[in-house]
Each structure stands twice: as C-alpha cells, then as structure tokens.
Amino acid sequence: MQGRRLVILFSLFLFGFALLIVHLAVIQLGRGSKYAFLALERETETVVLEEYPRGEILDRRLQPLTGSVDVNRVVVFPRLITDRPAVIASLAGILELPVKKIEPYFNGPPCYLPFPLTPDQARAIREHHWPGILVLPVHLRYGPTPLAAGVVGYLGRVQSKEALDVLSVSSRKSYSLSDWVGQAGLEKYYEGELKATRPKSAARLFVDAAGRPIPGLGLAVDLRAVDPGRQHLVTTLDARVQRVVEEIMDRRVKKGAVVVMDPHTGDILALASRPGYDPRPDGLAGYITLGETGTFTDQTTALFTPGSVFKVVVAAAALAEGVVEPDSQFHCRGSLDQPVRCWYGPGHGDLTFRRAFAESCNPVFARVGLKLGAGKLIDYAGRFGLDNQTITGYPVPRDGRQNWQLVAAPHNLVNSSLGQGPVLATPVQITAMMGVIVNDGVYIQPRLVRELRNDADQVTRSFPTGPNHRAIPASTAARMREMMELVTTEGVGRQAYVPGYGSAGKTGSAQVDGRGKVNAWFTGYAPLHKPRYVVTVLVREGISGGETAAPVFREIMEKILTLPPA
To answer: What is the pLDDT of residues 538-559, one digit of tens each?
Structure first.
C-alpha cells in the first residue's frame, strides 16, 4: 500500500513537473522574443525611427501607395548632452532655425527633430561628434504625393477607452490612447494585420533602474529589426496607372470616380474619387478646419444612377433571349415619342437596334425593356454582377439601397430599361459589367487585394482571383462588341475613340434632379483588338456622357496604353 502511494505521488509530481516544463517551453520558444523585447524596452530609452510603426500598403509591383520614404533626421538624447546651450546654438545655426524653435526638444524625452536635412547639414552635424546627437534615417509613411487615398484610407488617434478595448480584442495586439490607427479604407479594414508590435528601426540608450545611462553600453542603433507581428498588404493597384488617373482627374473631374480594371483577371488597377483628400495628418486637419463635407467618401464603391450605361445589360439580355437582333427595325419620333421621349428632339426616324444602341435612343430601349420583361431584366442584372457589391480583399459594407426587385414594381420597368428609376450601381460594378463583354461573356468578381506578406517577405495569406460564371453566350458578347465599336466610331461616344488603338464602350447621362444636373458616364475598353483595360468614368454634375465623360476616358486610355504591361 505504501509503495502504491509513493508511485501515485511520484506520478503526480512528475506530471506537474512536465506541465511546468511545457509552460516554460511555451514561454521560451513561443513568447521568448516578445518578453525579450519587453525587457529591452524597460532597460532603454528609445527613439522609434518610424513616423507610424505599421506595415506598408503596396501596389502590385510592391511600391508603397502612401509614397513612404526614408529621410535623415537629427536624433537627440538629452541625458547625454553636457553643454546644452552651446550645442543648441550650434545646431540651430547649422539648421538655419531660431534657437527657440529647437530648444524644447532638448528638455524632454529622447526624440528626433521634425526638420528636413540637406546632405551638407547632415555632414556638418556628424562632424561635430556631439554626445547624444545622431543623424539617422527615419521612415516617413507619407511622401509628397500619396496615391489612392480614398481606398487606402487615413490614420487617426484612438478616440476613446471603448475604441481601445475593441481594437485590443479584435487584433489581439496591445494599444494605447496615443496610438495611430486606421480610420477608413484599407488602413481600417486591415488594422490588425498592419499594426506593428515593435519598431523596425530604433535608437536606444541603456539606462539603469534610476534612469541613469549605463557607462560602457552607450547608444545602440537597430535599422533592420524584423517584426513578427507586422504584415504588409499587397494590392492589385498599379501605381503608374493610378498616378495617371489622379493627375487627369485633378484637371478635369471636380466630382466623380474612375475605375481601371484588367478584364481578364478582374484585378482593379486604379480606383480614384474626387473630391479627394490629403491623408497626411496635417492635410486632414486642413480639410476639417475648412469644414469640407464628403471628402472621405470612396465614390468608386458608392451607388449612383447609371443611366444609359445600363443599356449594355438590356441589349445583351434582349439579344441573348432572341427578343431582338442587331438589324431589327424601330422608329423614333424624338420628343413626341411614347412612353418616353428621346433625348434627340427631332427623332432618329427609322433605325436598326444596333444604331439605336450607338445613338442611345431611349424610346427603342423602352420598347425592348417592356418586351423583355422585369423578370429577365432582374435576372441579367444579376448575371452581370450588378447585385454583387463584393470586391475581393476590400470588405466595404453592402449598401442596402441596391434592390433589383424594385424593377418589378408597378410603373418601374420603362425607367429601369433606361438605367433610371430604382436602378443603382457602383462604378466598380459597371466596370465589371463591361468586363463581361470583353471576356467573351464571363463575369469575374473584381479583386483589390492580392496577398499579405510578413517582414520576412513571406506570403501569409493569399486572395485568389474572384469567382466567375458565364453571364451571356460568347456569341452575344461578340455582337455586343460590334455594337459598342459603333458607339465610338459613329455614335454618341465618338469623343471616347482612342486614335491608333481603337476603343469601344457606352455613354450614360443619368438625371439626378429636376434642375438638369446629370451624372455623366462612359465605360469602355481598349485597344479594340486584344483589350488590355476596361475604364469607367463618372463625372458628377456634367453635361452628358458623350461630352463630359468620354473625353476623360480617351485621355486616360491614351496615357495608360503607352505604359509597359505590369
């Protein structure tokens, strides 16, 4: 009996010892680096050499969309400076700044001075060899011209204790009220992945328990630390295409949106909205001070009345269902026509369906829509992805105002056939719709994010190309391409024709109120043979799709078609 008790006691002791060993192993192997970093933080005074310790948001060629850059800055450790007045005076002279402007930085914790340095100034400061004064590279998140701000988003301080608790739980990372976190766009949606758990670059001064510098250890500078918690977001955007789009919009589009897509993969190459905003904190403060409204809205994923660009769906559905043929005959009486009048007052007279599409003749499409019926119209809108607001990797909340069942409500079918009434779509959806025509009738869900990568450049998560399905027969898509070519060569979209390459597409002019304001659209593709890009342009408060949006489309295409393939 006594031997059995000893065996049981020994077994319990051995089991407890094994649990202790396992726990120590977890601490040492799984969390060892974390605890070592926390110990280092307690033993040093640290200057983080990053403006915002976060992962980068990159384009498809791994270029930072925020324009992040490394620049030299003066790093100050006040504890190590013996003759402060003399050092401050000399440094102010080199920087060509008043003494009172840099003096406050010498009376607090270690920091880097926020003043730019020329190479000559950096060299002069280094030559002085002042104790506690260093010139080191600091990583700034924002360059002079950040791109895709409406999609990338912006940063802001943690707003409240409640927000702090939500962030800590959702990301499983440590936060404080002084932290900068994503407030919109990709910065917000991927906050948990982007947030750093330790600085990638830092200068450290080793101190004892009383905060005194430890003799012999001096300053340590680490410029290449690996952060196991930080990840970098690789998007499908092409910074070269994005820059072209934004430069043109700054000149020609006060309000609106542009989407550029690779029709064969569904990858979004550019997304831009106007009015835009400067995502840098100083820029945001200026917008808020001026009381700007609506500047933070990503209009590429917002719902708008599409107008006649929706006739692409109506025409494709009618051709696929055998309701019409390209050469079917119609008659337009212009302003006298019923149930709707034509935008062209004198009327188009006798014309074929292909000509009605090229001229965007409303009476013809009203009749075709009535013959097609609400059920078929709703069905084909879904086939073209106009009921799908999902963008792979970009989790924008769905807007419940998009309700295609309203097309079947009384008195809605005629207006719906013209892209008015209850019909709503986003510029991204319209672009994917046009992609169906280019892609021989196959719909591909748009994609904005390709992958996440860690600091070791290893892919930690991939976002495959979005799901696809056949929307219309390939033969119908081919006939639609012929009709769209007629729009830019002989119809209302002639200003969208791209010399040397050819282009095709559809105009749209959507009435937004009773005072003549129009949302002007053009969506199309180029080159005419073996298309590389689908581009959708929305100009709010324009004149018409043909006069306002088509020329913007042409200019964008002319520029991006000269770029080498990504």
So the answer is: 999 999 999 999 999 999 999 9
